[in-house]
Amino acid sequence: MQVDIKSFGADRHYATIKTDQREHNVWLIDAKKPADSLEHYAAEMFRRAEDMRRRALFALDGADHLRGKPRGYTFDRDLSFPGFTLKIDTMAGYGYFERDTGGEGGLQFENRELIDYDGAYFLPTPVGLALRRAGYKVGDECFNDPPKEAA
Q: What's the half-sphere exposure (Cβ side, CA atoms, 13 Å) at 34?
């Protein structure tokens, strides 16, 4: 997290907080804090705002979450096939897979390339192949035994 502070007098400050995922701007008015603690104060305000945002998402999507749908996502791409559920939110770059016999995992994409996954040490081969057939780039290192089938 990077915090930049611009001061406009003794008690008016403008903070820009940058993280890997977003940028947050906030006025710190009547912030009667020593100059060296303003960055800490702004960062704490950002953490509180992010916590409130997450709570709001949970409140809005809580019922869907209880039914198994991860909250805050709109899965507009359904690549499910026999034995697996495979869905992707193309705007968020997030997806998930579930094996009908048990087991699940999350998928993260950037520019139609799989950049991270969880839930399994290796990506299940049928999931990786389905992603490749749908036009996603999936590296051979994601597989226990890279498939011979071309992308």
A: 2
SS3 9: coil
pTM: 0.52
For the chain, state the CA radius of gyration: 21
103, 115 contact by CB (below 8 A): no
Instruction: Give per-residue pLDDT as tens, 58-108.
Output: 554 444 444 455 456 788 899 999 999 999 988 888 999 998 888 888 899
Where b means 16+ CB within 10 Å and e means fewer, 33-46 reads: eeeeebbebbbebb
Rounded distance between C-alpha atoms, residue 42 and residue 29, angstroms: 11
Q: What proportions of the chain, in percent to the nearest 5, are helix, strand and coil?
A: 30, 30, 40
Task: Give the number of other Cβ atoms within 10 Å of residue 11's Cβ.
Answer: 12
Give the chain's largest Cα–Cα span: 66
| Dihedral Cα 38, 43, 48, 50, nearest 10 deg | 150
Q: Are 137 and 112 in contact (CB under 8 A)?
A: yes
